[in-house]
Amino acid sequence: MTSPIEAGVIERHNASLRADHEADFHSLGERLARRGLDADALVDKVARFTVAVPSWGTGTGGTRFARFPGPGEPRGIFEKLDDCAVIQALGRASPAVSLHIPWDKADPAELKERADALGLRFDAMNSNTFQDHPGDPNQPLSYKFGSLSHADPAVRDQAVRHNVETIRIGEAIGSRALTVWIGDGSNFAGQSDLSRAFDRYIESMKRIVEALPEGWRVFSEHKMYEPAFYSTVVSDWGTSLMAAQELGTKAFCLVDLGHHAPNTNIEQIVARLIRAEKLGGFHFNDSRYGDDDLDAGSIDPFRLFLVFNELVEAGERLDRLEPAHMIDQSHNVTDPIESLIRSGAEIRRAYAQALLVDRAELRGLQDEGDALLASDRLKAAFRTDVEPLLAEARRRAGGAIDPIRAYRASGYRARVAAERPAVAGSGGGIV
Amino acid sequence: MTSPIEAGVIERHNASLRADHEADFHSLGERLARRGLDADALVDKVARFTVAVPSWGTGTGGTRFARFPGPGEPRGIFEKLDDCAVIQALGRASPAVSLHIPWDKADPAELKERADALGLRFDAMNSNTFQDHPGDPNQPLSYKFGSLSHADPAVRDQAVRHNVETIRIGEAIGSRALTVWIGDGSNFAGQSDLSRAFDRYIESMKRIVEALPEGWRVFSEHKMYEPAFYSTVVSDWGTSLMAAQELGTKAFCLVDLGHHAPNTNIEQIVARLIRAEKLGGFHFNDSRYGDDDLDAGSIDPFRLFLVFNELVEAGERLDRLEPAHMIDQSHNVTDPIESLIRSGAEIRRAYAQALLVDRAELRGLQDEGDALLASDRLKAAFRTDVEPLLAEARRRAGGAIDPIRAYRASGYRARVAAERPAVAGSGGGIV
Amino acid sequence: MTSPIEAGVIERHNASLRADHEADFHSLGERLARRGLDADALVDKVARFTVAVPSWGTGTGGTRFARFPGPGEPRGIFEKLDDCAVIQALGRASPAVSLHIPWDKADPAELKERADALGLRFDAMNSNTFQDHPGDPNQPLSYKFGSLSHADPAVRDQAVRHNVETIRIGEAIGSRALTVWIGDGSNFAGQSDLSRAFDRYIESMKRIVEALPEGWRVFSEHKMYEPAFYSTVVSDWGTSLMAAQELGTKAFCLVDLGHHAPNTNIEQIVARLIRAEKLGGFHFNDSRYGDDDLDAGSIDPFRLFLVFNELVEAGERLDRLEPAHMIDQSHNVTDPIESLIRSGAEIRRAYAQALLVDRAELRGLQDEGDALLASDRLKAAFRTDVEPLLAEARRRAGGAIDPIRAYRASGYRARVAAERPAVAGSGGGIV
Amino acid sequence: MTSPIEAGVIERHNASLRADHEADFHSLGERLARRGLDADALVDKVARFTVAVPSWGTGTGGTRFARFPGPGEPRGIFEKLDDCAVIQALGRASPAVSLHIPWDKADPAELKERADALGLRFDAMNSNTFQDHPGDPNQPLSYKFGSLSHADPAVRDQAVRHNVETIRIGEAIGSRALTVWIGDGSNFAGQSDLSRAFDRYIESMKRIVEALPEGWRVFSEHKMYEPAFYSTVVSDWGTSLMAAQELGTKAFCLVDLGHHAPNTNIEQIVARLIRAEKLGGFHFNDSRYGDDDLDAGSIDPFRLFLVFNELVEAGERLDRLEPAHMIDQSHNVTDPIESLIRSGAEIRRAYAQALLVDRAELRGLQDEGDALLASDRLKAAFRTDVEPLLAEARRRAGGAIDPIRAYRASGYRARVAAERPAVAGSGGGIV
């Protein structure tokens, strides 16, 4: 297995931090033991938890106003895979990559080979019918007025075919799921028939479901708004659930943490979808205003913890669902590799904290109506600094105790900046 | 039939406005004719559309901070019915009243007799397990920590029994539906198990459904928050739909216009519930911030129109559902009778405007992707001043051309203020 | 004066609609007369009200996900001016254009000459430091981490110089104001020092104010979020007011209708800024979710009316302020010319409706605490269909009774589509 | 000094926890020392930080739907003071109480004497013109349509007199500030003149400011909505700032954490008010939807931390302002004493975490545009479990290591429940 990070970097880095880390891990272990928890068992659980990184997340993101690229932007899927390998080498939380078609289109055999060489595998595939792809012979018709729900059956056919093609690529590289997010909707009341648009979406999705190989799942991803600003065809989890119900046993709902109305209690949506046996997976990120796509846990870390609290609480009910964990973020002002390493760690942090909750005790307090102690017990888990558990999980897997520091020490970014030509800062002119 | 409004009042009032009204109706008729619409047919449709008033809406509402009663507050259900009869006599849009138990508990035979005498009938019944009713022997246990979803089965039993009792009263007075809104939820993360609480709600509701007489429906009413401020068991339409699906063919979802997250596209929820064949009815009101319970159409009249646009658009699909139309408002600074008369008219206004849309033309524009003209056609219907149609519908039914003015001329409020003792302005001390 | 619209088009179009229009205008006049209002006087007032169009609004807008251009996109400022002349020729509400530098950079003399020939003039200038302009020798430093508030004084200098250059261009073409909107802010708590960033903004703005010619004003435009998603330096009207106060008598606040938090009462902000004598002007548009930049009046027409109600209510206090009226919209799914014609009309509609309010009567009802009648009087003005007044104002000024229909009849879009090469649908890849 | 908690309770409780606490404090001290921080110095700083409790917070709160009292509700201000003494005895964070007039009206000498005996003092006074107080001879006129901004000067006079009376009581008991929160606003567009209402508010406040004794401050407290649902006279910090500017050097702005629009960045408002030298103080609580008045730090603990981050960051600039720290919460489902003890601790927790930030390092990262490390350093402070510091600060001051557990062990609630008659669960009937 090749690695874009020189072997000695992590070793030297860890050696320099070892003493302090061991002291912290030991002291945390003692405190946890007092609560009846075994630090080593927790490290094992954390180590088994992974989250896929999005190929498109390795490039600098932007807004409709501008994009400000950094040095060493990956120029194609193979350079993106290199970057993903760096993330995994240091953070050890992200062995899988989620591809976006047509952005990442390439020979499947080469993709597979390159991923194998880097020790990566492929998670859910993402199709793209929210953009036109000028020059693509497979897309003669525009998605300006919709794709899977377009009024014109020819556009719907084209969009269905694109999704089927995405599945086929995924099949060839070992993926097992397709995530469908469409931008279909309308900007004006009256522009679109709210009911018929949804009918057409369902009809198109049925054809995609029919094309799914054995063992595959499809995730319908809802979003409140953007790019459409009056109505969106799949705008909320209720609509997503209706779709998954009609589409049958291979169809599930995907929860992106930034796709909800203001003030929404997202963890309760997670609980509802588990109960409906339709929770398919997550797009992790954080946000304050809209679909801000910020780094997971950066705006409201308690919310992220509460989502994981539901997942841990669900216990065996979740085993049947095996939700897919993916990151979906836009890294506008940071080095994307750093943000993805950190986000993997933040997601694991929320999981680790949720593991600390004494479920039996909590249930007892809930049943007694002891709101104060019940909430305190949950908060106590959240405010436990589990960093030593995360670091130990990384260390044992060959990763870095402090992966950001190790990454900076590695000189990777400077090296690829020298190899990859600079991209001009784009001034979109879209306001 | 007795009427609390002297017969001559409306007659004299209408006579004084007749000439102007006829001119306006005629001129509007000409403009509508140019668009291929028949004013008389529209008046007929409008006249057939009615909306139930809530018994509790006849008293002055308030907030947790204070309630400022007006003169002549009704002291019980029979005086409330008198006030409802005034609303109907003048506005002719509200022949039915929706009761709230135990607030309106009384001998069913007397209720029926009084309503008959006033020319009123009873719409959906409302149960109440969001409050404790001190001294009520049927409610020994507190709802502080929930009702239908309470952790304690004894509390759930009590809440179910209360709902069954409410159904029985409704049966005796000719109602055909039960609206269930519960305040169950939690104020702290951890206080309540989000999944088990919903399981218990479903289990309790199943027992209520079993108690429904033939031909009855039950409406589950969701609400984002308040009185619970962290989580609410039935918080959104997705949860309400899951409930209605599990509860079977008698269970439907009720949409209160003020119970949604900020920025929510309510008309699309209406469209989705029609498609799912689970739209049970509406609680009409308006709001800007939360469940403000303001007068229908007072904050965002275009939104109210768009809801009716979906209802008219649904056409025959809606005939099977026959959604219940009810007002649910809190009249804090107005004479409740005036607000309810006006709200009935505003709701009819939205309906009348929606009737003006040329559905075939709109569909054509939608299919062509002509966003601008499609939205303009819809807006043209909205900006048509249909007041003469509404006034004519009232007039033909024996109501007032300008019902607020006629009400003020009637002296009703002063008369009941003399009969009904003043209520002290309450300073709740709940902040 | 040259016009891109053939003279006979409007004439023929108006002739075909004349009879119906006159009947409608006459009948509305009668109804207004009954309320003591003179239709001709209203037409005059409406005709005097104009709103500037943004040069950038003539091209198809988009989102970070995609932009779907239409046929005949203008390739530069001169073609944009042609399109603006069409808007004015038909709608007669927009004799002025607002430029954006560097997008519209050109020889000022040529700009002036072309505008004169088309019968247009220039409204407020807009600077742009929210994007990098690759290849521009005046912008060697990146705005990735801010512009006027950047931690590095060299970047601030550069941004100040750009604003001064924008003023100079404006001076040469007859503009009298500069609008400053910056995207400065941060995506993470901690990334930026919230206080020092504002200090630096003020310091930079002081230098811009010093560069303002006699008689010029500068508008600070606040926005809650986007492109920054954790904090924004000038995020709300309170911050904008603090800035305008510190910057002195030439500095004012600009209100963009889509730049506020959810549920905000915008008309009250307008009232506050009038009282503070700091209302500089407006960017009109409409929105439901965020800075959606939809067509004015398309989402919440009542809100637009209420803004104008404050302007009319302010009366003479406003005369001193002379707020600038500009449109700022993103036309993603319509022909931009059509949207801008319509938006000008919608803005005038709101103004015309506000003129109908009997201010003395309203004040009396307010002072008596007659909430119901006060709100009804306001709503009565809003629901008056003033289209005949708007059409007559256009007609008398040489414009089209139905400008959208006349525009379509003119064949302008097809003509420019033949002249201007098609632009590829961009797939930004920024998600 | 009398104490409602038996002396031995805390002693015995602390003894039982001593060993573990000392181990935790020691181990935290070592980790902090590695970051250059001195645990003892931090304990001292934390110990000096206090937050006033609201007298009204000792009773169970509620909503417009219901209030569910617990056992042993305090019946008047003297029993409330007893409860406050318990909070302080155990938590040692709240030596001061904030009174609400007329709710807490009593002989000032008796109030002072009782507080002295309990070791308490009085923080800012709160007036109340958002309710009518039936039977109060000082309030013959209703506040239904406003108080300080009422259209009728007689009502304004009455409201001003009430505020002056509140100041006089405060003077007699050693308070130094008056907090003015009014519910004035409107429920309908048109009901109120947005500008004149604010003019009248300013005029009334000027008279209150004139009545302030030497050394006193007045805090204007803004709130977005509730009890008014269309407009609120003092709705946002911009309005509050305008008021404080006009009212002069004794007038400041109070920030209640729950009184903002959805998604608002509150810490930036704090930074702005510090810069404007107008930050008067805080009402601490937490909320997700509106003015939910939940326990501080229970919904979004990171947000609370970020507010304190601004306070610590402001450093000496804040010394001149000396903002008042008060809790304002509604305890609907918990024992109010427990919630207030916990909230005091949560507020101190946020303060303690903010003290951990290396300001020089952070500033350096900010100036370099190192968004990732800057945000990580801040997050590292937040995720440090400072509970041992808080416990040690309590312990050294004579309080309880685990104050909730000690409180439960004390039997205080059961004892007062036996003395104080049960209050009936109120069913407001306000919906």
TrEMBL record, chains A, B, C, D:
Pfam families: AP_endonuc_2
Superkingdom as given in the UniProt entry: Bacteria
Alphabetic keyword roster: Isomerase, Manganese, Metal-binding
Gene3D superfamilies: Divalent-metal-dependent TIM barrel enzymes
An annotated Gene Ontology molecular function: isomerase activity
SUPFAM superfamilies linked to this entry: Xylose isomerase-like
Domain Xylose isomerase-like TIM barrel: 99-293
Protein name: L-rhamnose isomerase / sugar isomerase
